[in-house]
Amino acid sequence: MRIGILGAKGYTAGELLRLLASHPQAEVTCLMARVDAPEPVAAYFPALRGLYDPAIEPIDLERLIEQCDAAFLALPHTAAQEYAARLIEAGLKVVDLSADFRFESVDLYEKTYKVEHKARELNSRIPYGLPELFRDELKQAPAIANPGCHTITAILALAPLMRQGELVDLDRIVISSLTGVSGAGRKPSDITHFPECNESVNAYGVATHRHRPEIEEQLSRLAGRKLRLVFTPHLIPMSRGILSTCTAPLRAPWTTAEAMALYREFYAGEPFIRMLPDGEAPRTGAVMLSNFCDISVVVDEHARSVIAMAATDNLVKGASGQAIQNMNLLFGLDETLGLIPAPRRPVAAPAAG
Questions:
Q1: Side-chain-facing half-sphere of 51: CA atoms under 13 Å
Q2: Domain boundaries, the chain
Q3: Of 86, 94, 113, 317, which has fewest CB within 10 angstroms of its CB?
Q4: Active-site residue identified among 30, 68, 149, 246
Q5: pTM surpassing 0.85?
């Protein structure tokens, strides 16, 4: 498949290029962004020097259509609406990494992002791109809306509980989510400037973060009724990774073994979900640079609560890896193509003795 990337300068585009370099069925033929003149890939991603011939060029939609079978839209929110319809009309497969088509309710999107949605009819045709939950809907879609990074991590942590309303109080879910600085994007700001974020942790978007409505909409869909939840993200001094800890009170006695059994059955056969052994909690370092989501669940019998935890790499499973998984589905390919790399983090030496 001949691949084009619109918005080829940001972190998610860089991750797409890193992963596609080892994809056996992908050829990147077109890189475009809002630039005035062609620029080499290495100008933005020095680690990719020599891997790609195409330069990053000004956006020319008709040339992209001519040269590509598929397009990743790694554009700022609202920009994808400008291009998606023409690409789909021309027969390209499209995965949008922005929030433009993530919401079933366009009104909710407009309220959350405080902009007008200019592609309402198209929005109804683009499904939410979470194969672990909605695989059958994605295979025949004209395009896929890639989930947000906090969103995918929290939803995967909580999804098995959504049909357990007799056991779990779904109206009192609390999510605490820790993220690395790359989640804020490539454009620097006061809170992501190194002297400000290094050796410091802070909550942000408290009670107002844009991923909360997205999480609520998808969990409500799974639960079969409207849910409201508490979601608090925190910025921590590392480059990448998300750890979501989700808690909810229990309505009836339950054990960790029973919860683990539920989760293992729910995610059986999922290539990118790794259920951890009882007593082991997810770590962001263990999923770094990978498309895996590590999950664990514990019942706190003292507090009569269930605690579900998930770790992802926000730039891979939380963005570009998930996008490639979705594109593989659109082309009828094995979902794992290009996404099962060798370990990238040193393995700890075994204990002596």
A1: 19
A2: 2-126, 150-312
A3: 86
A4: 149
A5: yes
CATH topology match: 2-126 vs 150-312: no
Q: Are 56 and 33 in contact (CB under 8 A)?
A: yes
Q: In the CATH scheme, what is the homologous superfamily, with its name and number, of domain 2-126?
A: NAD(P)-binding Rossmann-like Domain (3.40.50.720)
The dihedral region occupied by 207, where left means phi > 0, alpha psi between -120 and 50, and beta the remainder, is left
Burial of 63 (C-beta count, 10 Å sphere; 0-12/13-18/19+): middle
- Residue 246 designated active-site: no
Question: Where on the phi/psi map is residue 218: left (φ > 0), alpha (ψ -120 to 50), or beta?
Answer: alpha
Mind listing the pLDDT tens digit of every residue in the chain (353 residues)? 999 999 999 999 999 999 999 999 999 999 999 999 999 999 999 999 999 988 999 999 999 999 999 999 999 989 999 899 999 999 999 999 999 999 999 999 999 999 999 999 999 999 999 999 999 999 989 999 999 999 999 999 999 999 999 999 999 999 999 999 987 777 767 777 777 778 889 999 999 999 999 999 999 999 999 999 999 999 999 999 999 999 999 999 999 999 999 999 999 999 999 999 999 999 999 999 999 999 999 999 999 999 999 999 999 999 999 999 999 999 999 999 999 875 466 554 444 43
CB neighbours of 327 closer than 8 A, spacing ≥ 6?
1, 3, 70, 72, 93, 95, 144
Residue 180's alpha-carbon distances to 69, 119, 133, 234, in angstroms, are 33, 32, 26, 9
* Domain at 150-312, CATH homologous superfamily: Dihydrodipicolinate Reductase; domain 2 (3.30.360.10)
Residue 64's closest CA among 39, 43, 91, 24? 91
Q: What are the structure tokens assigned to 227, written together?
A: 């849910």
